[in-house]
Amino acid sequence: MLTLAPSPVLMSLLTDATDLAIERNLKAFLPVLLVALSAASLPRIFAPLRQVPYTLLLLLVGLGLALVDVRLIDLSPGMILLVFLPPILFEAAWKMKWPDLRQELVPSSLFAIGSVPVSILGIGWALHQWMQVSWTTALLTGACLAATDSASVLGVFREVGAGRRLTTLLEGESLLNDGAAVVAFSVLLEQAIDPQPIDVTTTLLQFLVVSAIGLGVGIGIGTAVALLTQRYDLAWVEQSLSLVTAYGAYLLAEDLGGSGVIAVVSAGLVIGNLSLEPGRRPEKRATMVEFWEFTIFLVNSIVFLLLGDQVLFPYFIEHIDTSLVAIAAVVLSRAVAIYGFSALSGWVTGNPIPWAEQTVLWWVGLRGSVAIALALSIPALVSDRQQIISNSFGVVLFTLLVQGLTTKPLMDRLNLLEDQQIHTQYLQLLARRTALQQVLDHLTQPPIAASGDPQAVGPELEFVKTQLEQSQRQLDTLQQTYPQLADYLRQQRRETLVAIETATYADFVQQGYLKSLPDPILSQVFERPVPKPGESP
User: Fold this and answer.
1) Within 10 A of 305 (CB to CB), how many other CB atoms are there?
2) Alpha helices in 14-114 (DSSP H)
3) How far apart (Å, rounded) are the C-alpha atoms in residues 253 and 262?
4) Short-list 108, 251, 205, 114, CA closest to 166
């Protein structure tokens, strides 16, 4: 590989080995970013690639580099876990709406926490029984692959307009699953490095203590940061503090003997949902959304490239049968967990999950960045590290390539695609009509009409009126063609009315007229079923 020596001026500024190490890391990082940006631009150049998840493209690019023996970057296992996990977990938790998660907390928790031992034992047993892999390696592989990744699927869900409950179940499972999977991975990794007799009672107690410390650290830091950032409307401060929180909560919890993963998740949930104004959700500013979209793009770019980059392709091909067994075990154990815990959740809550939604949840159990980060974080002293990485690569490749690309056809076959495109088209027309009406009001104001040149204003008025009438006709046609829009518009209107009622109560509390928020009336009324003709409301 061709390397350029630093200039004498630069060498005079780099005074010690640490400076030179930073320079080497920077030189290694820039090609990774360049390759990631190039992979991101491929769908714009080649139309057929627009249906391929971006993470899958990165994985294939990394594999292509490994085939020609080009290694982009080399990070220590511990650094991989520290650098990549906190932002991935924080961003997912920060975006999650607590009211939605609370409503589906029972099934999401069962899927997330219950599926971890099912996956670990299922994958571990299959690899040990069918491929004679040692129990230590088999269970550690299962721990890496127990963490699900919903990022790619959620992109498909947003595109096709999946139902809110289905989306919440998937987001909630992925969010809560990460903490349980990483804690289980840590326990099994310790066993792989320093085998000790496992005491179930002691292990469970340790899990509770570690989780409690992480939860306390996350809630404490998250509350302080949420109150601080909302009091001062400075976007760059909020962005900086959120990034510091992601890493700070992780490091502090780990130093105190707790779970850094649980600390990051709880801090993200608090910051994303705690508001200074009672009863009102904090607004997720566009600047924060853009900041975290870029951060996750960067992290995913490096993580997925690293997996392809770290795979020894001849070894992967030689042990492809082990990867196929791991894939089968992942799919089957996922089916056991989803269908089994769905039945339990329906019995506990009295709100069963329809069979079609269960089927989608089973099929979209993709493995992604968290599984990759865990596999790459295994130290080199673990004898079967390369096998675990190869198996993880095979499973991630299968889930992204096969399951990810077939999610939309499956949802279409099960009649789970909502009319998101119709809703978007209607809202765009509604926004256009509103904007044109405001333009028309501006042009017809007396000062404008009096001071403007009639010959100049006249054509503008005529054009705006024509476009306004055309927009209204398109709206009417859309409503007549798709009667189901009426239910969607009714729901949107009701949500607006409930928000107005809740905000008004919050204003009275803030001004000191009320001590607490009254119970909302509109939400209780709107949740009742619509009475049929002849029935009393």
Assistant:
1) 26
2) 17-45, 54-67, 77-95, 98-103, 105-109
3) 9
4) 108
Q: CA 125, CA 134: separation in Å to the nearest integer?
A: 10
Q: Are 364 and 407 in contact (CB under 8 A)?
A: yes
Q: Cα–Cα distance between 402 and 399 in angstroms, integer? A: 6
CA–CA distance, 240 with 503 (Å, rounded to integer): 29
Q: Which two tokens stand for residue 377?
A: 């974080």
For 52-68, give the secondary structure using H, E and C: CCHHHHHHHHHHHHHHC
Mean pLDDT, residues 521-535 taken together: 55
Q: What DSSP element (H or E) covers 187?
A: helix 164-193
Whether 120 shows a pLDDT value over 90: the answer reads yes
Arithmetic mean of pLDDT, 206-223: 89
Please name which of 506, 411, 432, 439 lies closest in space to residue 160, comparing C-alpha atoms: 411
Q: Each residue of 494-505: pLDDT tens digit?
A: 777 877 877 787
* DSSP class of 277: S
Token code pair at residue 31? 């090609």
Asked if 295 and 90 count as a contact pair (C-beta separation under 8 A), the reply is no
Q: How many residues does the chain have?
A: 537
Distance CA 498, CA 524 (A): 10
Residue 496 CA to residue 397 CA, distance in Å, equals 43
Specify the 3-state DSSP secondary structure of 22.
helix
DSSP assignment of 137-176 equals HHHHHHHHTT----HHHHHHHHHHT--HHHHHHHHHHHHH
Q: What are the φ and ψ backbone dihedral angles of 406, each rounded to 5 degrees?
A: -105, 5
- Closest of 92, 149, 115 to residue 369, by C-alpha: 149
394-413 confidence digits (pLDDT tens): 898 888 878 877 888 888 88
Burial 255-284 (b: 16+ CB within 10 A, else e): eeebbbbbbbbbbbbbbbbbeeeebbeeee
Q: What is the 3-state secondary structure (H, E, C) of 413-444?
A: HCCCCCCHHHHHHHHHHHHHHHHHHHHHHHHC
383: which 2 tokens? 């004898």
CB of 152 closer than 8 Å to CB of 117: no
Which of these, 334, 360, 260, lies nearest to 111 by C-alpha position?
Answer: 334
In this structure, the number of other CB atoms found within 10 A of the CB of residue 224 comes to 15
Q: Model-level pTM?
A: 0.70
- 18-61: pLDDT as tens digits: 666 666 666 766 776 777 777 767 776 777 776 666 666 776 77
CB within 8 Å of 157: residues ≥ 6 apart: 166, 167, 170
Single-letter amino acid, residue 232: Y
Q: Tell me, what amino acid is at 474?
A: Q
- Helix ranges (DSSP H) in 194-257: 200-231, 235-255
Residue 416 dihedral angles phi and psi, to the nearest 5°: -110, 5
Residue 414: phi and psi, rounded to 5, are -90, 5
Residues of 373-395 as b/e, b for ≥16 C-beta within 10 angstroms?
Answer: bbbbbbeeebebbbbbbbbbbbb
